[in-house]
Design a protein that fits this description.
The complex is a heterodimer of chains A (117) and B (99). By secondary structure, chain A is mainly α. Chain A has one domain. Chain A is built from four helices and no strands. In chain A, helix 1 packs antiparallel against helix 2 and helix 1 packs parallel to helix 4. Chain A is elongated. Chain A starts with 22 loop residues before the first helix and ends with a helix. Chain B is mainly α. The longest helix of chain B has 29 residues. Chain B contains three helices and no strands. The chains are: A mainly alpha (117), B mainly alpha (99). The interface between A and B is large, with 38 and 33 residues. Chain A: It comes from Capsaspora owczarzaki (strain ATCC 30864). Chain A: This is ER membrane protein complex subunit 6. Chain A: It is found in: Endoplasmic reticulum membrane. Chain A: InterPro entries: Emc6, EMC6-like.
């Protein structure tokens, strides 16, 4: 929907411009990020299990893998985060802990398969 | 297509690394060596497989949409267009009836 620009003084109209975002596109992007985070948690969890990480090293590895994921998301957003997200935290910290349970599931599963049995 | 191939390749590399680790641990048990840690080639293969598969997942999903401005713009002459209020049962049918 094309909303009319916020009325402001002709002189400093740009300063009073209200930021407007397309809600449908924002929801779409958030959903895409959520799907990617789940998939990445599966992959990094399996990796942690195969490497035989235990304790805090395993949790530390999740955040290292999230850092890599943020980098890949930055490239996917064509290095222009502001065009696709209202805040840069969308690709760094938003929903960071959503994938943690999936990660722990795959981590313990692969650790058990490879190192225990 | 490329991302699908990359994902399958990454998953296979990951599986291969897991299998190598199992064999290595069996070898350690057989040789009765007590040693923790994995050979560097298995570690590198696992990490490379993770990077490849994660990249494939990120690029396989739909591209992000621009949130500035709408993708379906309404033209100015259609702003007050409300198709749901169209009425075809009006006086026109009587006024312009053929005599």
């Amino acid at each position: 929907m094309a909303a009319p620009a916020a009325p402001g003084n002709a002189g400093n109209g740009a300063a009073e411009e209200v930021e407007r975002f397309d809600a449908t596109s924002m929801r779409f992007n958030t959903a895409v990020i959520g799907r990617i985070r789940t998939g990445a948690a599966v992959i990094s969890g399996s990796t942690a299990g195969i490497l035989g990480l235990t304790g805090l090293y395993g949790f530390g590895f999740y955040f290292v893998a999230s850092l890599l994921l943020s980098l890949l998301l930055f490239v996917k957003a064509k290095r222009n985060v502001a065009a696709h997200f209202s805040s840069p935290s969308a690709i760094t910290t938003d929903g960071l802990f959503d994938g943690l349970s999936t990660y722990v599931l795959l981590w313990t599963f692969m650790y058990g398969m490879v190192h225990v049995y | 297509m490329l991302t699908r191939v990359a994902f399958v390749l990454g998953a296979l590399l990951l599986f291969n690394a897991a299998y190598s680790t199992v064999q290595y641990r069996n070898f350690l048990k057989m040789a009765e060596k007590d040693q923790s840690g994995l050979p560097i080639d298995i570690v590198l293969q696992t990490l490379a497989a993770m990077v490849l598969a994660t990249w494939a997942i990120v690029e396989y999903t739909a591209p992000f949409k621009n949130i500035h401005g709408s993708n379906e713009r309404v033209r100015y002459d259609a702003v007050d267009n409300r198709p749901i209020f169209y009425s075809f049962q009006h006086r026109g049918a009587l006024l312009f009836k053929k005599q």
